[in-house]
Structures are given as C-alpha cells and as structure tokens.
Please model this.
Amino acid sequence: LDDDESLYNPYSEYSAAAGGSGGEDQASDDDQGYSTDAANIAAQAAQPQIFSLHNTQWKAKQYGGARIRHVAAAGGVLFVATDRGRLVRWNLGTGDEQEIVIDPKRNDVIFKVYVDPSGLHVIIGGAQGNNWYVSVARGLKARPIAMSKGARIESVCWDRAGCDESSTGIFLIGTSTGSVYKGNIVEGKEKYWKEIFSLNDSAQPICGLECEIFPATNKAASERRYLIIAA
Model:
C-alpha cells in the first residue's frame, strides 16, 4: 500500500457498535429493535476472532521502490514478489527478511509465486514464459527451469507427503496454453518433466489444480491413485 492507503477492517464496526450502545432508556418499538440489533452485534464482537485485519509497516519500497506483484505463504514464511524482479522471503516468526534476485535488471518479470506446504521449495512463474525455482536449503538462489520455458505457469499442485529438503517430490503444473505437466526437481535440477494432459483449446489456461491421494487398498497396495481436479 502507498502511504495514503489503508485497509478496511470489518471488525471495527462491531467494536464501535458494542462500545457505543449506552444512553437513555428506549421507549419506542424502533428503539427496542435497534437495541436488540446492537446487542447481537456486541455478542458477535465478543466471540473469538479467527482473523484480524490491520496495516503493516512493511513496504516493498525498501526493495528498489517496488510494488507488490504477488504473495504466497507456507511453513510460517511469506514470499513477496515485487515488480522489480525481486522475491522477498519474510520469516513471520523471527521477522528476518532475505532478498532473492530474479532479474538483475529489475524488470517486471514475475507473474505468480508458488510455494510448497513445507515452505522449502518455490516456483516463480514468469510473465513471458520464463520460470525459476528456488530451494531454501540450497542458498535461496533462483535457477531457471529450462524444461518449462515457453509456457506461463498459471497453477501448481504439490505432493504434500512427497517432498523433503533436497526434492520437491512430484508436482503438477497448469499452464497458460491449457496443458498440465508432471514434474520433479531434485538438488536444483529437473529430474522429470512431462506433459500428461492438454485441452483441445490451447487458448484456455489451467488456472487451478488440486489433487488428493486415494487411500491404499489390499488390491493395489503398491499403487498410488490420485484424484486431480483442474479448472
């Protein structure tokens, strides 16, 4: 946000109504109705809040006067992509920040950021079909994904149980050209990258991917069966 911008917090209405309901006795039916509404709002405000909304002092301007392009979070870490070709890794527990250079010339090259559930592996989708991979365990250096060049990455689905510090495990990627790829990156290198599905209309992007593993059965104990939903 710029200096003159602020966030709207819907909870502030509940707090204001709960704190300002005092005064003279209500005599009319309308006043009684208002009193009941205020009591309901106060009761809602007293309930534990799952989420809270507030302004933060963090600004992308400290990284070259940039604006935020995209964000992704996992494992207590927030990854912030800027329009100056930078990715910032922000540890929400310690407050530490680390800058990852995607484009040395500070061009606006980042489209979206995808981080696995552990927060150890990051795929950066480029606006022009150039894509990068970052491993937290290997020094946070962005490496081009050569096999993915040419198609803009629109969605990523991770194998939540198959990754570790050195390997992403098997993941699926949806592209701007209507294709789904199956990939695996080990020690910073593409070990596997193959197209497994393609729409008839190449102009239709795969904007969302989700997959679930079916429970193992006695007949297929050694096989892993997946339910994959693409949108």
